[in-house]
Amino acid sequence: MNPQAEELNKIIQEKSSVVFELLSKRGKEIYFPKKGILAQSAEAGKARINATIGTAIEDDGSPMRLESIATKVNLKPEKIFLYAPSYGRPDIRAEWKKMIYKKNPSMTGAEISLPVVTNALTHGISMSGYMFCDATDQVIVPDLFWENYTLTLTNAYGSQLKPYKLFKNDGLDLGSFEQTLNEGAIGKRIVLLNFPNNPAGYTPTKIEQDELVKIIKASAEKGNKIVLLIDDAYFGLGYEAGIATESIFSALCAGHENVLAVKIDGPTKKITFGVFVWVL
Ligand SMILES: Cc1ncc(COP(=O)(O)O)c(C=O)c1O
Is the entire prediction scored with pTM above 0.70? Predict the structure, then answer.
């Protein structure tokens, strides 16, 4: 294992042994190469002469660009035509974090990480697979699910999907969810939650959502260590009285020490962008 990854693992273990245990082998081995080229670039950014990057510039120092493209974009050329920072735009990440609190008022005071930018939600789900899913793991999903979970979690990382029955009568089959979550020996659980659900379009009622939270916390209380991958692709598209208006992430982001909640969301139904937030 690279010493930089070992260093990070030590920090994670000190903060939360649960998060460390939930990471996949890949997740434990990955690291941001802070001592390599990226570190040199960051250092050079502050210097008078930066010779670490090859960027074509105009005589006035602005990025070289095609007029035909530049005239279609109403933003400063430096924000559009240069390399995007490998860690994303810190100002947008901070803004997105603020929006999560604003749209989920009961989260006030809960501590969450700065969102990580991904290339839309599919990439966020794929990165979750990278970080948490080994070939020996199962991912609990509803029996009605977006079929790219198979590609991103099974084809890519070898985890099997373990479905529970989403519906019973006119509502959620909470019993099936609870049974599937608690089946087998106490240990690691990976659970994918997606509301409004694709393909059913269903959002839990507030009562059902509270019940889901109770079931998850009770399972964590028994000793299961649970990582929740919360696919909030359609968050906010709720128009009926009585349905949950906040993401289930709100109640679970600081819900139990054995629960790690990962919120995967973004305005992709409008533009291509995605974020990945995780917190214990
Ligand atoms: C439930 C669900 N999650 C994720 C996605 C993917 O979103 P994106 O286009 O942002 O990758 C979709 C897209 O249809 C979806 O239905």
Answer: yes
